[in-house]
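Fill in residues.
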């Protein structure tokens, strides 16, 4: 039985600890923050807990669902329909793929001009060869549905969900199989209908995404894992008998194996101490404001599960708004509605700004007296996409230094890539 120290208690570190315990190893987990979970974290808001970070996992591939099933967690998809907001009003997001509709009856087409709808209506008769050589979402939609549909239906989704312009978003990454379905069916609308998921594309454990980490922690502790939070690992060295790690409060740990599951900056600092000089990739910041609102017309869900902002106005600072308690109804406690607004990284929203933005985006005037709670949330180390070749070099350098490296900054931003990346610790 080997001794393993896991550094970092986000999803990757906590799951790695559980897998190692299940394989018969002795595991010590150390996390610098006050609790486990990393960017999967609960936020206490009035009388309920909501997600302060990641709120769902992608259904495609079944990876997140399989882990929840293993842990005995009930899951459900979101309720309500997403909308796109412009100063003229909010309209339904297309029920398709990346904002591309699947049928001419989609209510989202009402947002187009008569000419724009006519262009879309002609799409089924274009033939399978038009746009079939496109490599990006923008090129495909422009070729088959026209500029107006691209700007109105698709561009807000690619920018709001994927933080990428449609002309830079690879089809292979977000809609694999769409081009082959186009070749087979001769229509982009028909291809979308054939390839989109039959049910919701995302889901979460009922009660919040943070329930996943809470259950993982319970299992790790129950299996004998030694877990300490508020214990930042500062040094990692090696001697003849293995690895030696020390924490900021003076604890010394010895291990046969080390799993580093921290954010990039901390991981590369520890790797450098054992001779692996790798450069930490760029990260980005994200800011959110969360409101709990009493006794409001919001209960009628005027913008469904929330809105993406397609066109800014001088007074609007938010980039998107999720009507969290409409999207995840278990968060609706005592008739109180929960709204989550995202902001540019360089803007720290005040309660007044969040209330004004939520009123504008929802079409419901919210009085400050109705706000039972407000929270401003900042994430300072959101992983960026990493080049596959760079990822392979990082993993090779870590292995050479005797370290297993896991986490979103290496494996990809998203719940499924992180879960799959943990499999490396058992190889």
């Amino acid at each position: 039985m080997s001794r393993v120290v896991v550094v970092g208690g986000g999803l990757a570190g906590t799951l790695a600890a559980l897998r190692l315990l299940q394989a018969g190893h002795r595991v010590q987990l150390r996390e610098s923050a006050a609790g486990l979970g990393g960017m999967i974290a609960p936020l206490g808001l009035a009388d309920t807990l909501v997600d302060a970070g990641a709120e769902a996992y992608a259904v495609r591939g079944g990876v997140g669902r399989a882990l929840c099933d293993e842990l005995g967690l009930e899951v459900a998809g979101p309720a309500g329909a997403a909308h796109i907001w412009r100063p003229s009003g909010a309209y339904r997001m297309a029920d398709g793929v990346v904002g591309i509709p699947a049928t001419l009856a989609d209510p989202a087409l009402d947002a187009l001009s008569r000419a724009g709808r006519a262009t879309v209506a002609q799409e089924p008769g274009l033939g399978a060869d038009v746009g079939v050589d496109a490599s990006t979402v923008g090129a495909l939609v422009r070729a088959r549905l026209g500029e107006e549909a691209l700007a109105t239906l698709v561009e807000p989704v690619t920018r709001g969900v994927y933080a990428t312009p449609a002309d830079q978003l690879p089809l292979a990454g977000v809609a694999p199989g769409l081009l082959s379905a186009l070749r087979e069916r001769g229509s982009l609308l028909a291809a979308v209908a054939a390839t989109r998921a039959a049910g919701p594309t995302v889901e979460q454990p009922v009660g919040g995404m943070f329930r996943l980490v809470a259950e993982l922690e319970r299992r790790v502790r129950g299996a004998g894992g030694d877990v300490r939070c508020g214990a930042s690992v500062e040094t990692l060295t090696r001697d003849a008998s293995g690895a030696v790690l020390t924490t900021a409060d003076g604890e010394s740990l010895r291990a046969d194996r080390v799993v580093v599951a921290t954010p990039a900056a901390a991981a590369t600092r520890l790797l450098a101490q054992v001779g692996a000089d790798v450069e930490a990739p760029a990260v980005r910041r994200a800011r959110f404001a969360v409101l709990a609102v009493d006794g409001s017309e919001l209960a009628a869900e005027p913008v469904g599960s929330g809105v993406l902002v397609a066109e800014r106005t001088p007074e609007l600072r938010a980039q998107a708004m999720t009507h969290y308690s409409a999207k995840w109804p278990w968060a609706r406690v005592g008739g109180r509605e929960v709204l989550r607004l995202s902001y540019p990284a360089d803007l720290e929203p005040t309660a007044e700004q969040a209330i004004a933005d939520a009123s504008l985006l929802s079409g419901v005037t919210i009085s400050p007296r109705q706000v039972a709670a407000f929270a401003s949330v900042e994430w300072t180390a959101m992983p960026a996409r990493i080049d596959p070749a760079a990822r392979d070099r990082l993993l090779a350098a870590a292995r050479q230094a005797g370290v297993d490296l896991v986490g979103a900054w290496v494996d990809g931003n998203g719940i499924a890539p992180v879960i799959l990346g943990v499999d490396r610790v058992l190889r």
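The radius of gyration is 23 Å.
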